[in-house]
Amino acid sequence: MSKDVNTLDKNTQILINYQILDEVLFPQKFLKSALPFFNLEKLSNGHIRNVPTIIGAHPLAVLRGAEIKGESSRSIIDSKLPLIGVEQLQVKPQAITLGVHETKQYEVNENYLDMLENTPIDERVFPQELLDNLRSVYEQRIANDNKLFIQAHSIIKSTGTHISIWTASFESTRLLKKVIESLVIEFYRKIQEFGIKPEEYTLQPALYNFDIGEILFGAEFSLPFMIRNMNYLIDLSLEEVAEFEIGFILSPLGKPDEKIDIDTLSD
Hints:
Layout: E1 13-19, H1 25-34, H2 40-43, E2 53-55, H3 59-68, H4 73-80, E3 83-88, H5 95-98, E4 100-107, H6 110-117, H7 128-143, E5 149-167, H8 170-192, E6 197-198, E7 202-209, E8 216-235, E9 249-250
Parallel strand pairs: 2-3
Antiparallel strand pairs: 1-8, 3-5, 4-5, 4-9, 5-8, 6-8, 7-8
């Protein structure tokens, strides 16, 4: 896919997947940047760091793993808690039914290339070499007074983020739960700036666990939303944009060619 630009011929196709944010990495970064504003260390009388440890897994799995490796319960509690886990929310069974597909063709421009290059490296599913090659091809086309075209194939999927809080005390969990509840408001406001549609979140506020021989206190949030996932196919053989009506089409479980309004999908 990412050949050297000098070896790219007119029949080369380049596939790039792009989703405007990652369900795990984006919320992790959001929490790490927002939590310091609450001064948790002062609010908790020193029991919670201003930015607790945030991981991309379920905290109970990490704690159980530490126990299996031979750490004592007290050592685990003292060294690892509190823990905040961020995971991708389990996709709903009806997500395929909810998904809508869109296909369109358009001309590649600087804005498109900038969008790809501004994608955080840890959220990319394409190498930097591919972007370098693509920009080189684009600049060659422009220099020769030609254009570069792209096909965009997209699906709107129902996904989301799961946030788990686990601590060694009821008071710490209660405080972190209230803080995360506040941040959910800002998180939902933020993702709407990217064209993502939030759905109603759920909270399990009073959870308990005894797996490591000590009582642990937890609370867990499920934050569902609908997001567009894109495949961009850069076809070097395209010399013009095909004209056709662009519409949303239901997945194979729905009626073909039926036009859909995304705002009605979760009703």
